[in-house]
Design goal:
Elements lengths: L14 H11 L1 E5 L2 E7 L8 E7 L7 H29 L3 E7 L7 H18 L2
Parallel strand pairs: 3-4
Antiparallel strand pairs: 1-2, 2-4
Length: 128
């Protein structure tokens, strides 16, 4: 049975790793409305990936809107991560990922989930 959880140790919180991802070490691609930025790096966790979610304060002024979008992205990731984890465990890799919401309007959960699936699929291909 697959575990559909998103534990605290699966969240990317290390400022050093986040800075490394954004300072030209990380690779990226966009699957509108989600920009995926990642870095293959050893993590001090048992999980094959650590993830964080970001929404622009410039595009969404109210914290309520930003938090809702992040909640949608987290849920879409949580439901679709088992396949992603399986592929990483086979390759024995660890990866730090940041999902950035780049749309100008809030989209429905179905759209966000479909794009999250595409992003995870493309990320699996890029990590080969």
């Amino acid at each position: 049975m697959k575990k559909y959880t998103f534990k605290k140790s699966e969240r990317l919180k290390s400022r050093k790793i986040i800075e490394r991802i954004f300072n030209r070490e990380g690779q990226s691609f966009a699957t509108y409305p989600i920009l995926t930025v990642w870095l293959e790096t050893p993590l001090n966790t048992d999980f094959p990936a650590q993830v964080t979610f970001s929404v622009s304060k410039k595009k969404f002024k109210k914290a309520v809107q930003r938090n809702r979008i992040k909640r949608l992205m987290r849920e879409a990731y949580r439901l679709n991560k088992p396949k992603f984890y399986e592929s990483l465990q086979v390759k024995e890799k660890q990866v730090a990922v940041i999902f950035v919401y780049i749309a100008k309007e809030e989209l429905a959960f179905e759209v966000v989930e479909a794009k999250m699936k595409q992003s995870l699929k493309r990320l699996r291909r890029n990590l080969k």
